[in-house]
Specification:
Among the domains are: 232 residues, Muramoyl-pentapeptide Carboxypeptidase, domain 2, CATH 3.30.1380.20; 164 residues, 3-Layer(aba) Sandwich (Rossmann fold). It is an alpha/beta fold. It is globular, with a radius of gyration of 29 Å. β18 and β19 form a beta hairpin. It is 43% helix and 16% strand. The strands form six sheets. The chain has a five-stranded antiparallel β-sheet.
Length: 579
């Protein structure tokens, strides 16, 4: 749900007394808080905007892409594609506006989207008139655009246009504002430099207030009937899992999820591959829940948890007197799972004898209990999982090639967490919400530094390690406070990789999270050389944070893991004490 209620801004451009870029940006908040949300991680080949991955796109590439789209699909289809690309970006980046500038006027928070345009070099957005009321749904805005990269790209390809061409940017503005307003808002470009105008100018209002033929240029009007944010055009959202325990929107995750959705309704044997901690069992449960066998429970067994002498009896059952101590007949997991799904984890640890018996069950659907002579027919769907390279195990002679061929009907490889970093913000929010609900606590979230450090950490233990880190950090964090960097990591864990952040000069400055941790300190390792009062410690911490951030209160508050307003309160309290 949007945290916005109502906001307004009116600016008469003709009345401005200043000139140049400083005058044009007179109504815009300082952008340094947004530039602090951007970091470059060249060691991983990644750029992050807050908790969302971004890329830099060469303008020549945009020129080539635009030309290809228009020549291959025609201008109408190309317009729709580019609009939807921008809409998806705007919808997702509205999430950034929900999180930053929480202690600032709502109009400053709303202008996050327009200012991100400038930060990425797409266009300089100049608000002229904005009137919005989220509760009533009323919205109207007029903005001017300067230095539109999209208009320049179109002019470079086609020499100009008889109609406005900033389609992707119109989509961004529409998606961003629709998400903020919780209703479908559509923008229209009424002036464009590609048409010979000195600047681009756009107007936004609810989609139903536009002529139907205009809305149809981008998508049919029925697509704008979304109750909250209008058109749903994010391809990843269409693949979003319905299971409350399966979280992710990264390309690697969605690829695996798409395969799971395809095979779930069938009875095909599935082999889940992936490193320890990628949560293969959760995928197995999701697969079972989406199958025709979901009315019965899923049966799970970890093959590595049983000694080699007992695993056969566990899987296939045992007859009375089969061996010493077998005082009564007992069914195995295959019989118990008849008509349902059996999940066999750590399948690569089975002995050659058990592998042979499993192969027979998979091929013929029949089994014999240990010590028995009768065969039983079973109808079991088998889902297996392993963190081993089974091809390598076959080469070593520890795994049967014919069993691998039988299991490998439909393999699904689950990516490690380091290959799906886009999902880290979603996962930590999910784990923290579950922790708060389970314990009755109210830890409010994560500081920007904490999220950024998580995005560059390698996670050798994958999702299981991340979940444990969040729980430990939440235990150490007070209610109504966010989890900070030193709550998450011990000094030995923190990544020593260097990332780069844009500075106000436009240059990139280096930041090492290991150095940052040393600078901020770990409260569990803090050594106080002499007796200090709590107020003196508080004063020293604030002075150190302000000094390291060169007096920037917003950046210092993020370093300390508190809100900007709370830091101002502490500063004022210290000033009153010293008077």
């Amino acid at each position: 749900m949007s945290r916005f209620t109502s906001f307004a801004l009116k600016e008469n451009i003709a009345d401005r007394t200043g000139t140049g870029s400083s005058a044009r940006s007179s109504v815009l908040p300082d952008i340094s808080d947004l530039s602090a949300c951007v970091h470059f991680s060249p060691h991983d080949g990644q750029i992050w905007l807050a908790d969302q991955r971004a890329v830099l796109l060469n303008l020549d590439a945009m020129v080539a892409l635009r030309r290809e789209l228009i020549e291959a699909n025609g201008p109408l289809k190309a317009r729709q594609i580019l609009f939807r690309m921008g809409h998806a970006a705007g919808t997702r980046e509205a999430q950034v506006a929900m999180k930053v500038r929480v202690d600032r006027p709502q109009i400053d928070a709303f202008l996050v989207g327009p200012q991100l345009h400038a930060l990425r070099g797409e266009v300089f957005v100049e608000p002229v008139n904005i009137e919005a009321n989220v509760e009533t749904g009323e919205y109207f805005s007029e903005l001017t655009w300067r230095n539109s990269a999209e208009a320049e790209a179109h002019a470079a390809s086609f020499g100009g246009s008889s109609e406005p061409v900033c389609w992707m940017q119109i989509g961004y503005a529409s998606g961003y504002t629709s998400a903020i307003m919780e209703r479908a808002i559509l923008f229209r470009e009424v002036e464009c430099i590609a048409c010979g105008s000195p600047q681009c100018r756009i107007v936004g209002k609810p989609v139903e207030e536009w002529p139907e033929d205009y809305a149809a240029q981008f998508m049919p009007r029925r697509s704008f009937t979304g109750k909250r944010v209008g058109p749903s055009i994010d391809a990843r959202a269409a693949e979003k899992p319905v299971s409350s325990n399966v979280v992710g929107t990264s390309p690697g995750f969605l690829g695996a999820w798409h395969l799971l959705r395809c095979v779930a309704p069938l009875d095909t044997t599935v082999l889940l591959l992936g490193e320890t901690g990628v949560r293969k069992e959760i995928f197995a449960r999701a697969l079972h829940s989406a199958s025709s066998r979901s009315k019965k429970p899923l049966y799970s067994i970890n093959c590595a948890a049983f000694p080699e002498t007992l695993i056969d009896a566990e899987l296939f059952g045992v007859e009375r007197g089969a061996y010493t101590g077998a005082h009564q007949a007992r069914e195995g997991w295959f019989e118990a799972a008849d008509g349902s799904t059996l999940f066999l984890d750590e399948i690569g640890t089975l002995s050659p004898t058990t592998q042979a018996k499993l192969l027979r069950v998979l091929q013929e659907g029949q089994l014999s209990r240990i010590g028995g002579t009768k065969t039983k027919q079973v109808n079991v769907r088998v889902v297996c999982a392993t963190n081993l390279d089974l091809d390598a195990e076959v080469a070593k002679g520890t795994f049967r090639a014919d069993l691998l061929h039988r299991l490998n009907v439909f393999p699904i490889k689950l990516p490690p967490l380091r290959d799906r970093r886009d999902d880290i913000p979603l996962l930590v929010s999910h784990f923290l919400h579950r922790f708060n609900k389970k314990t009755g606590r109210h830890v409010t979230g994560f500081t920007a530094e904490a999220i950024e450090a998580l995005l560059v950490y390698e996670f050798p233990g994958n999702i299981r390690e991340l979940e444990n880190m969040v729980e430990r950090a939440a235990i150490l964090t007070h209610d109504e406070e966010p989890i900070s960097l030193f709550h998450l990591f011990s000094h030995s864990q923190i990544s020593n990789r260097t990332v780069f952040k844009p500075q106000t000069t436009g240059k990139l400055g280096a930041l090492s999270y290991a150095d940052e941790r040393i600078a901020t300190g770990d409260p569990t390792e803090l050594v106080i050389p002499r007796k200090l009062s709590l107020g003196e410690i508080e004063k020293l911490a604030i002075q150190k944070a302000l000094a390291s951030c060169k007096g920037n209160i917003s950046e210092a508050s993020r370093t300390l893991g508190i809100s900007r307003s709370k830091l101002r309160y502490y500063i004022q309290k210290q000033q009153s004490r010293s008077q």
